[in-house]
Amino acid sequence: MPVDVADPATAAADALLPRPFRVVANRRETSDTVTLELEPLDGDGLAFAAGQFTMLQAFGVGEVPISISGDPARPGLLVHTIRDVGGVTRALCAAEVGDVLGARGPYGRGWGVSDARGGDVVVVAGGIGLAPLRAAVLEVVRARSGFGRVHVLYGARTEDDLLFGDDLEEWAAEPDTEVAVIVDRAATSWPGRVGLVTELVRAAAFDAPRTLALVCGPEVMMRFVGAELTARGVPASQVRLSLERNMRCGVGLCGHCQLREYLLCVDGPVLSLDAVRPQLGIREL
Ligand SMILES: Cc1cc2nc3c(=O)[nH]c(=O)nc-3n(C[C@H](O)[C@H](O)[C@H](O)COP(=O)(O)OP(=O)(O)OC[C@H]3O[C@@H](n4cnc5c(N)ncnc54)[C@H](O)[C@@H]3O)c2cc1C
Q1: Domain assignment present for 84
Q2: Which atom in ligand 1 lies closest to the alpha carbon of residue 69?
Q3: pLDDT one-digit tens code per residue, 38-84
Q4: Is 232 exposed, middle or buried (0-12, 13-18, 19+ CB in 10 A)?
Q5: Residue 3 lies in a domain
Q6: CA distance 28 to 202
Q7: How far does residue 275's CA lie from ligand 1's centre (Å)?
Q8: Beta-strand pair 120-126/211-216
């Protein structure tokens, strides 16, 4: 039977079909995290906004949501930074150059970086949370003169867990840009700060009412960082968080990622603090 491409059911099924991407690089970031660079086998790259994600598939193993950590100005190269925490992420991290993975998307609402134009930008990352924020920082750096002061505040468990060391150095060399790193625990040889990322927020100088804050990390960290930012005077509507929930379809059909009235795959993953503050305090929600 011929396929009716105008049929809504066919169109919906098409939206769930992964496209083939070839792995062109697999770079180890830390003991459990790699960055994959992928190129499409069947046409154009994926134009995306910083903060969006794809459903990334290891064929025969499974499919999981992974944020795009690459440069939005280079859609031909799909870049994902993946932490090995289970079956699918393990298979993705083990992908070798030449292997083919499936990707569909990009999905979701991103950071909306351009809303920060003319004001200050405070980026606060915890652990693997720097991956989706990397795309946002690259977008800011590319149009650096359009923004005020920029702070990249990054907390990791240990020095060995720090991601994107070269990027952090490059960003720190930009005008009016501060990159501050803090670790939870450290060997005595670590010359940097030890503590929580909230301390970096407290110490940073920014014009709070004219600041857009972008935050990604464990939910408890985002709750405390959100409280610190608003205490400093950043309006809750200008604090944006990237939320993670179990996602299956990525297109608002299956309901796995529902948070109150939001389906995080389409209404998020980036939402403002004022939209989700009541839910953030509820354990296991
Ligand atoms: C929008 C979005 C963007 C993401 N971006 C990235 C990214 O850039 N890099 C990256 O490494 N990971 C990212 N993740 C998390 C990633 O999707 C999960 O680690 C992955 O689904 C785990 O699948 P698995 O089969 O490897 O492990 P599983 O066996 O399914 O899970 C292993 C462990 O991780 C926990 N887990 C599974 N999924 C999630 C989740 N969504 N949030 C919190 N804990 C979870 C499980 O409870 C379990 O403890 C993102 C998730 C979302 C929703």
Answers
A1: yes
A2: 8
A3: 999 998 899 999 999 999 999 999 999 999 999 999 999 999 999 99
A4: middle
A5: no
A6: 32
A7: 23
A8: parallel
Residue 232 lies in a domain: yes
pLDDT 10s digits, 184-238: 998 888 899 999 999 999 999 999 999 999 999 999 999 999 999 999 999 999 9
Pocket test for ligand 1, best of 89, 130, 240, 248 (most atoms within 8 A of CB): 89
Could you tell me the distance, in angstroms and rounded to a whole number, from the CA of residue 109 to the centre of ligand 1?
A: 18
> Any idea how long the chain is?
285
CA distance 138 to 22: 24
Atom of ligand 1 nearest to the CA of 257: 53
Residues with CB under 6 A from ligand 1: 53, 62, 64-67, 81-83, 85-89, 128, 131-132, 244-247, 269
Would you state the structure tokens that stand for residue 127, as one six-digit string?
A: 């652990």
Does 1 fall in a domain?
no
Mark whether 14 and 95 lie in a shared domain: yes
Q: How far is the CA of 143 from the centre of ligand 1 (A)?
A: 31
Q: In which domain, by residue range, is 12 found?
A: 8-107
Closest residue CA from atom 29 of ligand 1: 86
* 101, 92 contact by CB (below 8 A): yes
Query: Which residue has a Cα nearest atom 20 of ligand 1?
Result: 64
Same domain for 143 and 261?
A: yes
Kindly report the protein residue whose alpha carbon is nearest to atom 13 of ligand 1: 66
CA-to-CA dists, residue 117 to 69, 114, 269, 280, angstroms: 21, 5, 21, 28
Percentage of the residues of the chain whose pLDDT score is greater than 70: 94
Q: Which two tokens stand for residue 121?
A: 């930008």
SS3 260: coil
